[in-house]
Structure formats: C-alpha cells, structure tokens
Structure to design on (365 residues):
C-alpha cells in the first residue's frame, strides 16, 4: 500500500482508500498516536477550582477514550489541578465514580487509601506484605497542562511538550478573556458519525466545502477571504464575516486588527477542535470508536451570552448535521473499487495535507 504524502502539496496525493478501510491500520493509529498525544479532559471553571477548605478538594472523574483505549482518570481540583489514574493499584477498581469532595481517595472495594497526590497511604490487612507500599502502589500521575481554564492530559510521555502544542492558541488568542467562559451543559451533546475519524478531521480542516455544503454558514462568511495557517502540530482557519457587527473586537496592536473576524477554527493534533466565536468557545473532541464509527463530544463554553446565535457561531447543530452527512457519504465512497487517491487544492486544502503529513511523520501513514 503506497501511502506516501509528498512534501510538495502540488504533487501530493491523498491517502489511498484502502487505508480508511483497514481496521488494522486504524488500530495502529490509536495504539501508536493517541497515548502520546494531548487530550482535553476537563476544566477548572466555576466553583470547582476554588473548592479548597479544611483539606477537602473537588474530585472529578474523567477519561481518555479512543477505540480500545478507555483510560479512567480523576481530576483533583486543588490549589493546582492534578490528574491521576482513577484505578486502584490493588485490584483495579474505579476509585471515583462521580464528582465529590474529599480529603483523600479511598477504594470502596478493599479500603486502600491514597493521598490527593496519588501516594498510597494505607491498606488494611497488608502488614505482612514485603516492600509495601512501593512506587507501583501509588497512582500514576499523568502529564498535564492547563490553558485558559481547560485541563489537558497525556496517557504517557507526549511526543510534543504541552507548551509547544498549545503555543499557537496561547499567543494568538491572548487578547480574549477566555478564562471567563463557563461550561453550558444545555448546549453540549455527543454525536455519532458512521465514518472513519480521519475523514471527520479532514472535513473540518478545509473551508473548501462551505459554499457547497453549508448554505447558512456561507451566507455569513466571506469565503473569498478564508485563510488557513499551518503550525507544527496545529492548523488555524480564520473565517471573516460579511457583517462587521458579528465579529471580534481585535486590539489595534494584534496581528488580526482591521479584519472582520467571525471565527477562529483551531485544530490540534490529533483530534481536538477549538472553535472560538465572539460569544465563547465550542470544542469538538473526536473519539474514534471503530474504523467506521466516530463519536464527537461537543462541549460549549459561553463567554458573552448576549452574542449567542449571532454570526458564524449560530446554527451550529445544523452545520454539524450537514458535516456528518457529507463525511458519511465520503466514508461510503472509500469502499469504491473505482476510487483510490485524490489530489489537494494548494489554495483550499493545505490543512488536510498538513494533517496527513503529521500522520506520516508519526509512522502510521
């Protein structure tokens, strides 16, 4: 299977359709890429990040999911958020099953107790066990990072440092008070897409399809001014508005000043989409379930409720359903015996090409 993605987009071909059909290649990506990648796992907003009194802190279960990976973790919202394994080191029981306040983590199965730093403190009926507690009895502390109130973790040593991974957003979005954004459960939901996860990412990474697929969004955005910016492990797409009132108030000393920016569409390798609108942020966490099934965890954080349902940040459910329909159609097309590889538009599809080059750099394409 020739999957080489040429370093010159003008010569490059897209991955062969057989790559999307192969369950073994799909599993290879999950096992080799996702454990070493950064994942959005929660936030420190509201009262949780400040719930520190008399030794009690807020504990919140979460997980990192992708196909066969379903890693239970617990967010410890102390003075500095800490992310630990949520699996007891005795017999593998889940420690925290629902959000709560506590002074320690205690297993409900056999009573093993851990400090809020993950260190094993006590275990009944273990006085005769040699070399106990050892390092292996402590809860694993995951590599973690924090930006604008959102928490990120990697399951094991990440291939890219968190600061390097998040740097493009940290620098370009610094003028926005994103730390004020609060989670809105009424606008958050999960979607199921019957397609390969990479096809969903590819669709997101180009605005080429907007005039053909998204009638409502196309009526808002100035497609002729659509811009794609490539980074080492991220892609930024900038959508400008036909209506100057539905845009960001960009400072005069910012690189985007004097532009009617309606939305910043960020994608961070491999599966996180952060869409920044004047009203706040919507995140799409792309979770591969099977090589032909993907779950999208859509999470909404509102910064300015007075600007909801305006401009490019309105009608997002409609846009999502339109995207799902075309992605599922492309997935069906990958089964064709008459199609193998396509070509890229250098002007409109550099983000898709960059994504494929990243997968190739990881040795999975």
């Amino acid at each position: 299977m020739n999957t080489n993605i040429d370093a010159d987009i003008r010569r490059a071909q897209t991955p062969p359709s057989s790559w999307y059909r192969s369950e073994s290649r799909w599993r290879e990506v999950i096992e080799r890429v996702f454990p070493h990648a950064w994942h959005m796992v929660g936030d420190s907003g509201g009262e949780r990040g400040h719930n520190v009194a008399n030794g009690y802190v807020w504990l919140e279960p979460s997980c990192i999911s992708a196909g066969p990976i379903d890693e239970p973790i617990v967010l410890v919202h102390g003075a500095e958020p800490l992310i630990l394994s949520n699996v007891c080191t005795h017999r593998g029981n889940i420690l925290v099953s629902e959000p709560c306040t506590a002074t320690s983590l205690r297993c409900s199965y056999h009573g093993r107790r851990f400090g809020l730093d993950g260190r094993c403190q006590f275990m009944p009926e273990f006085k005769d066990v040699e070399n106990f507690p050892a390092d292996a009895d402590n809860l694993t502390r995951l590599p973690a990072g924090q930006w604008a109130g959102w928490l990120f973790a990697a399951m094991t040593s990440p291939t890219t440092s968190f600061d390097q991974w998040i740097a493009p957003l940290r620098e370009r979005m610094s003028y926005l008070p994103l730390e004020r954004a609060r989670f809105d459960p009424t606008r958050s939901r999960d979607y199921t897409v019957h397609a390969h996860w990479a096809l969903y990412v590819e669709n997101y990474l180009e605005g080429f399809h907007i005039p053909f697929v998204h009638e409502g969004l196309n009526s808002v955005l100035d497609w002729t001014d659509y811009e794609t910016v490539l980074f080492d492990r991220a892609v930024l797409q900038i959508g400008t508005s036909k209506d100057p009132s539905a845009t960001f108030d960009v400072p005069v000393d910012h690189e985007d000043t004097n532009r009617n920016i309606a939305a910043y569409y960020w994608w961070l390798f491999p599966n996180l989409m952060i869409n920044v609108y004047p009203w706040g942020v919507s995140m799409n966490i792309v979770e591969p379930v099977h090589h032909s099934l993907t779950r999208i965890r859509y999470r909404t954080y509102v910064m300015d409720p007075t600007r909801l349902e305006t401009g490019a940040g309105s009608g997002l459910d409609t846009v999502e359903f339109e995207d799902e329909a075309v992605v599922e159609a492309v997935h069906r097309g990958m089964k064709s015996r008459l199609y193998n590889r396509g070509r890229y538009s250098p002007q409109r599809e550099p983000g898709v090409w960059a994504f494929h080059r990243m997968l190739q750099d990881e040795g999975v394409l």
